[in-house]
Amino acid sequence: MAETRLDTDTVIDIQDLYKSFGDLHVLRGVNLKINKGENVVVLGRSGTGKSVLIKIIAGLLRQDKGMCKVLGSEVSTLNENELRDLRLKIGFSFQNSALYDSMTVRENLEFPLVRNVANLSRAEINEQVEYVLDAVGLLQTINQVPSELSGGQRKRIGIARTLILKPEIMLYDEPTAGLDPITCLEINELINEVKEKYHTTSIIITHDLTCARTTGDRIAMLLDGIFLKQGTFEEVFDTNEERIKSFYDYNFIQ
Amino acid sequence: MSAKQKEHVYTKKIDSALLAVYNGYSFFIRFFREAFRGRMEFQEIVKQCYAIGNKSLLLIGMTGFITGMVFTKQSRPSLAEFGATSWLPSLVAIAIVRALAALVTALISAGKIGSSIGAELGSMRVTEQIDAMEVSAVNPFKFLVVTRVLASTISIPILMFYCTLVSLMGAFLNVYLNEGTSFIAFFENAFEQITFLDVGTSVAKAVAYGFTIGIVGCYQGYNANKGTEGVGKAANSAVVISMFLIFIEEVIIVQVSNYFRI
Question: What is the tens place of the pLDDT at every residue in A63-106?
Fold first, then answer.
């Protein structure tokens, strides 16, 4: 497991957060504090609001009630420009990679870079694109289009696209979903490498216990819209709470 | 179903219809807000113009040519009854310039371009590509919607001129084969009756149709949901709604231009 940093600066502060979609109450009073340099894994079954939580953090969704402060700013009260500035510090790796189908890998990576960093020369753009591609080990795919890539490669390119803006916070939505066990391990390693190399604070949304154990400094167990338990992997699963035990057993059987 | 249940169903339908109108209006207003601020994506506009023109050129050319030829053929017997077949070039030109070219171009483009924009943006929405742009601090509305709407507003009038020309060529072929009229005589006769108002009205129509096709396609695609089913629905709605609006605009613009004609 990755080593926990002792820096206590709070990067993400979520208090009493509620979110519903019609009659479906997804988050029912979530509390979570994440310190600088920490990798926090949010574990939970499908449909428990894990992705909703990080979408609120990234400002893609707005909470019904409660507070969600990222780098000291309440996300829901930010205006367009402030939200844009905050998003420059957040990298979001989507569950299905969300690569732009009509662009090559190079264009996918250049897209956020040229629109957010002014006055870059062609040589500087190329250098930065090649650097992040090299960091995820896929420099050879630079001229390919997303449809020519495997699931694991797409995930890596998705991560590379977020890294190009050198984010302070990384949000990973199901980084290992739909991948074979070996590729899962490679992605887990990459998440740890990103933390080491870019000094990021991360939230990793998953229901994969191997991913949680490998990448998480802290595990937060989201069940029925609240965090049932938080702590190290061992602390969370050393419990008599039936719902947590059944989640662990199910993963183990799988 | 009891009267109260029926009332509830109708209220819900009215609510959702009003909400759809409000959302459409907000999207329309947002387009103008975003179009005139910040950096303009010229490269993407040119790319979209090329894609729209390239996609429709052959189809519009063929349809325009056939329309011109068939319209001339169908009009001949009526004029022949009065011994006025020499008026054919003028009649056909008026019909093509005032109505047919703009309408044919718009209807074909609504099917080809509107559905393509709706499906493309819809698919980007359901695969979270639009969200990915947003979280990487890029304005997806400006990059995807503004560029496509502007491209279709610019391209449709150009395609309309092309359709006019090709339709007149179709008409000329028919007149030449039947009456042996020369190329110069045909076009001299054809343009004799065309006024600046006719051309201006056609351009106004084409601009309005182009904007409608672009904005409706983008609205449907940008707001698509429910996975692949939503993508299909977005493409379908983009075609149906833009065709419907095109006919409404046709009626309004014709009324306005007739006011000036008098």
Answer: 999 999 999 999 999 998 999 999 999 999 998 889 999 899 99
Please tell me the pTM assigned to this model: 0.87
Task: List, as own/partner pairs, every contact residues B70-74 make where C-beta atoms lie below 8 angstroms and the sequence separation is at least 24, other chains included.
Answer: B70/B170, B71/B95, B71/B96, B71/B100, B71/B167, B71/B171, B72/B170, B72/B171, B72/B174, B72/B175, B73/B174
Q: Which domains are assigned to chain A?
A: 10-97+168-253 (3.40.50.300)
B134, closest residue in chain A (CA to CA): A60
Cross-chain Cβ contact A161/B137 below 8 Å: no
Can you tell me which residue has the tokens 């695969």?
A: B127
* C-beta neighbour count of B25 within 10 angstroms: 10
Domain borders along chain B are 1-37, 41-261
Q: What is the ipTM of this complex?
A: 0.87
Task: Verify whether the Cβ–Cβ distance B132 to A95 is below 8 Å.
Answer: no
**Interchain proximity B128–A100, CB inside 8 Å:** no
Q: Where does chain B show beta strands of DSSP type E?
A: none
